Structure formats: structure tokens, C-alpha cells
Amino acid sequence: MSTFYFIAFLSIFFSILVISAKNPVHSILYLILTFFTFTIHYILLNAQFLAIVNFIVYMGAILVLFLYTLMLINLNKESEPVKPFMIKIAAVFGGGILAVALVSSLKSLGASDPVVLKNPELGLVKNLGKILFNEFLLPFEVSSVLLLSAMVGAVLLATKDPKETKATI
Amino acid sequence: MDSLTNTIQAVPLNHYILLSAIIFSIGVMGVLLRRNAIVIFMSVELMLNSVNLLLAAFSVYRGDAAGQVFVFFIMALAAAEVAVGLAIIVMIYRNTNSVDINVLNRLKW
Fold first, then answer.
1. Assigned CATH class of A1-76
2. What are the start-end ranges of the H helices in A45-136?
3. Interface list for A 79-108 with B (CB within 8 A)
4. Residue B64 lies in a domain
5. Confidence label for A11 from pLDDT (cuts 50, 70 and 90)
6. Quick check: is B104 in a domain?
7. What pLDDT, in 10s, does the model give residues B13-68?
8. HSE toward the beta carbon, residue A107, CA cutoff 13 A
9. Domain boundaries in chain A?
């Protein structure tokens, strides 16, 4: 039980560091640690498939993509834009108001039952694969079209227009 | 693995909702606080992840595997979104030489 609270504390701590770090590279490294704590949460819930997918897709693919983009853009600390102090206060206040609203609406629910793993096979690859390829077969196939279109779109956006470069030369 | 998952059994569902709400609010704060487009993207990822965790917790609570399949789809969606979004950021950087979102105010009025 205390494992959950310790990992939850680490998640909140690192996610605060993500938004408060001045250097964007440090932000990304703290985000990797945050996602690692999320992976531990999934393991604690016995969602083994999600833990592995979170580890590979988020920490492996998405954050490496972030780091590569940051490398291409070549930001340094001097170019980091700084907001005025009053706007920062207003932003923290707005986020805090949202948190208070969510938590106070949670209070009206009253005490809840503990999370109990009724079926230990729930989050295993075998069980999820059966559901994914029976009930969710159409969304699964449609998501492949989504990924293809995202790939084509990213390549199209990131490559320079050949006509434009010829005109500038 | 059994001894590890047995430790979770006493955690109330409310605490999972509380954790996700706090991390979601931190993500919202990050979007409002920062002007660097990449850090704003990372805050959006944080929000997506907090919702993923809550979906997984509800899925275990109800004993229904559909929640975990949803998380899988959200992850596929996030991968696509990040690829397109970062391509747009690289494009913006080529055109304006910065990733400050305050430069991009032509559509504001």
C-alpha cells in the first residue's frame, strides 16, 4: 500500500519538475522519469501489457522523438522565453483552481471501495489480445490508417518544398 | 509478481482519481505557464498519461479489460499526434527561428 503512495509522490514531484525546469532538455529528462513512475503504477495494477507498451512507446519512441526535435532546433537557455511574473501567478492560480474543483467534486463521492484485482489475468497480453482482435478489431485496423496518415503528414510537413528552395537559390 | 500486486489491494479508488487530477492540473499549469512550444507539448503528454493511468485503474476496479484496450488506442493516438505536432514545430522554427508561441499571434484577432 505504501508503495503506491511513494510512487505517487514521485510522479507528482517529477511532473512539477517537468514544468518548472528552465532548460527544455532537463524537462524532457524529468518527463522520462515521470513516465517511468507511470510504468511502475501499471505494474502495481498488474497491467503488464500496458506497462511494457508505456515503457517502449512513451519512454522509447515519443521521448526520443522529443529529444531529436530539440537537437534539430538547438535551443539554449538564453533563447528560452520568459513570461511576466503576473502571468505566471495567474497560470498557477488557474491550474490550482482546476485542481481544487476536481478534488472538491471528488469529495462529494464519499469513501470508495479499494481497487481489488478480481481477475489476475486481466492485464496480461493473452487476455487483452483476445479482446483487441474480437471486439475492437475495426478500431484496431482504423488506427493503422491513422498512424499511416500521421507518418505521411509528418514527412510532408517536415520536408522543405522543392519549388520554394529553387526559387530562393 | 503476486506479492507486488497484493500490495495495491488496499488503495482506495479515490486516491487514484486524486493522483490523476493533480497530475492533470499540473499539465494544465504547464500549458498556461510556459511559452516554449515543445514544453507545452510535453505538458499535453502529461495530461494524456494521467488519463491513461485513471483508465487503467478503473479497468482493474471494474474487472473490465476494455479500459486497458482504450489506453492502448490512446497511446497509438498520442504517437501520431506527437509525430505531426513535432513536424509542425520544426516547420515553425524554420519559418520564424524560434519556438516562442507568442510569435504566432497572426490568427489571434
1. mainly alpha
2. 48-53, 63-73, 85-107, 125-132
3. 79-83, 88, 90-92, 94-96, 98-99, 102-103, 106
4. yes
5. very high
6. no
7. 888 999 999 999 999 999 988 888 888 999 999 999 999 999 999 998 888 888 89
8. 6
9. 1-76, 124-169
